[in-house]
From TrEMBL:
Gene Ontology MF term list: oxidoreductase activity
Keyword Oxidoreductase among record annotations: yes
Alphabetical list of PROSITE patterns matching this protein: ADH_SHORT
Protein name: 3-oxoacyl-[acyl-carrier protein] reductase
GO-annotated biological processes: monocarboxylic acid metabolic process
Swiss-Prot/TrEMBL keywords: NADP, Oxidoreductase
Pfam family, one: adh_short_C2
Species whose genome carries this gene: Pseudonocardia ammonioxydans
Domain of life, source organism: Bacteria
Family: Belongs to the short-chain dehydrogenases/reductases (SDR) family.
Signal peptide annotation: none
Domain (Ketoreductase) ranges: 6-184
């Protein structure tokens, strides 16, 4: 089955998993709105897509800001057509042990991951309902199962799994699926910053983490982009409300 061209929004598309996902969805034939905090930061991803013959545009918005989200989704619809694929990928970490974790660090992480995914999905779902077709993919994490120093992040990532299942239940009758990807260790600026914070050399950090992974390598951003491509495929319409751990081995 050939893919019908859709308009996709990838939040946090300026770099890392989001950038690779935007590139992949464009290669799948879709028009891609690359959304990040600053429009200028999303331009490199847009240029990569255009350089490969695809269609994309950059949009600036903080996903935790409802007015900015409404404005950006409206601008995407106007410029690229009604969005019917949404990848809620934007994310931050503010790690600390519980007794040292500030309320600001708790709220910031909840704001981007949970409030951000809620606001984006609420703004985009009307376009999906109108089209009687939609695909929502939310980025969870293996940290949803618990991770030292990440009380805020693990709670947000576990919350996204419940959010996804509820979206699947509410929106299924409109031809919309919602699924969740829970990556394990993926080499990106986010995990590089973690190594820096721990004072560990990046190459040593990757080698040590790879030893703990059954397939014996760190994940790469394309591993996640490939899974997004599966969930957004026309042929995946009976797959909904699922959480897939993409972690080089099983997670429970
Ligand atoms: N890298 C990993 O190992 C890993 C593992 C599990 C889950 N994840 C999740 O995957 C997603 C992407 O991770 P990554 O490693 O590519 O991260 P990254 O830090 O490299 O990129 C995140 C992007 O999100 C953008 N962003 C942050 N806050 C935003 C906001 N409020 N509004 C709009 N954009 C915002 C950033 O500017 C950045 O471009 C995140 O949700 C992350 O939690 C990553």
């Amino acid at each position: 089955m050939t893919q019908q061209q859709r308009t996709a929004i990838v939040t946090g598309g300026a770099r890392g998993i989001g950038a690779a996902t935007a590139v992949r969805l464009a290669a799948d034939g879709h028009k891609v709105a690359v959304l990040d905090l600053e429009e200028s930061a999303a331009k490199a991803t847009v240029e990569a897509i255009e350089g490969a013959g695809g269609t994309a545009a950059a949009f600036g918005a903080n996903v935790a800001d409802s007015a900015a989200v409404e404005q950006a989704v409206g601008a995407v619809a106007e410029r690229l057509g009604a969005p019917t694929i949404l990848v809620n990928n934007a994310g931050i970490t503010k790690d600390n042990l519980l007794f040292k974790m500030s309320e600001d660090d708790w709220d910031a992480v909840m704001g981007v991951h949970l409030r951000g995914s809620f606001l984006m999905t609420r703004a985009v779902q009307k376009h999906m309902v109108d089209a009687a077709w939609g695909r929502v993919v939310n980025l969870s994490s293996t940290s949803a199962l618990g991770n030292r120093g990440q009380a805020n992040y693990s709670a947000a990532k576990a919350g996204l799994q419940g959010f996804t299942k509820t979206l699947a239940i509410e929106l299924g009758k409109f031809g919309i699926t919602a699924n969740c990807i829970a990556p394990g260790f993926i080499a990106s600026e986010m995990t590089k910053a973690t190594a820096e914070r721990l004072g560990v050399d990046w190459e040593d950090f990757k080698t040590a983490r790879a030893k703990e992974i059954p397939v014996q390598r760190p994940g790469v951003v394309e591993d996640i982009a490939n899974t997004v491509s599966f969930f957004t495929d026309e042929r995946s319409s009976f797959v909904s409300g699922q959480v897939i751990y993409v972690a080089g081995g099983p997670k429970t």
